[in-house]
Amino acid sequence: MLHELQAAPACAGAWLGQAAVLARRCSWLCWSAASPRGEDISKVSDISFHSSLRQSWSGFLKAGDWDMQREVGRRRGRWHRERGTRSSTGVPVRSGDATFPKAMDNVTVRQGESATLRCSVDNRVTRVAWLNRSSILYAGNDKWCLDPRVVLLANTKTQYSIQIHDVDVYDEGPYTCSVQTDNHPKTSRVHLIVQVSPKITEISSDISINEGGNVSLTCIATGRPDPTITWRHISPKAVGFISEDEYLEITGITREQSGEYECSASNDVAAPVVQRVKVTVNYPPYISDAKSTGVPVGQKGILLCEASAVPSANFQWYKDDKRLAEGQKGLKVENKAFFSRLTFFNVSEQDYGNYTCVASNQLGNTNASMILYEETTTALTPWKGPGAVHDGNNGAWRRGGCAWLLALPLAQLARLF
Prior knowledge:
mainly beta, Immunoglobulin-like, 4 domains, eight-stranded mixed sheet, seven-stranded mixed sheet, 1 helix, 34 strands, repeat, cell membrane, cell adhesion, membrane, disulfide bond
């Protein structure tokens, strides 16, 4: 004999006065009085109602028609309950006594971990079940859901617990422990909260921009709870964070602001995740070092020109407005990313004179002049020629020349004392 019919809480329709109308497919628990221990003997789900079921405010099935199918081994059967009749006891959809089962605290776990849902019971309980929204997970020792991650952990006189392995975000939500005592059915609800480690899902690509332009960087991250996003400049001179937002705006960027920018997303669930964006600031060449050099005849001499530029500068050498070519007899031009070296293997009288270094890229050019002069050696100190003169489209600087007095002969030097 059909003894009780219990609906999952989410099956309840709109409350109309003193009754609720249920007219959709739901999951139900069906208990039989024929079982002396009150154990459930069937598993019923997805009931299709042919007419409205009316339910009293207290939750008891009052009247209606329904058809449902069960499976016991390989046998199949159908129940049909006539309109106007009611079950012998009825089972309410809504809980009554709030003190039993004991109220449960929310359960918080990280994604991928296991969540344990515990329901405290006592010897008054005759039947128990765990539900997730409208789905029945376990009824007594019987498993109703197909999810292998959900297992029965304990079904004792004091506790009815289930465990969900490898928890994911879609497991989050309300879970209901439904119990039946000799007198009244009760429910207790717990909310499962799933925390998710932060993950950066979108970040700006590396960028190249001319000095003086504006830069906008974006960093989007997900997680539960929502992660906090911060930006910082990876530079010895950078101090602290430069932005605590998903977006980083730099107006009128300078060459000192080039480098890597790090986005960090954190929410205390796991270690922060970081990704970096490289910002390249282009600027025209600037010659930082160019020195005149004195070399005796027949010796090796070197003129050096250093320049800072992005992209790297191209170098050219001139003497008296005549360009010097690589491979020219007695000369070697060696160009690197940030400097150029002009080497004289055997300096002759014809090599002395004024030389100009020109550094250029697509953003501009600059030049610096220097002198290769003859160096004469005496007993004490050589005479040195003038310094270099630097001029270009980025400004000019001069290194003043200096002349050291020729050393006096030792005999004349002795007369001074």
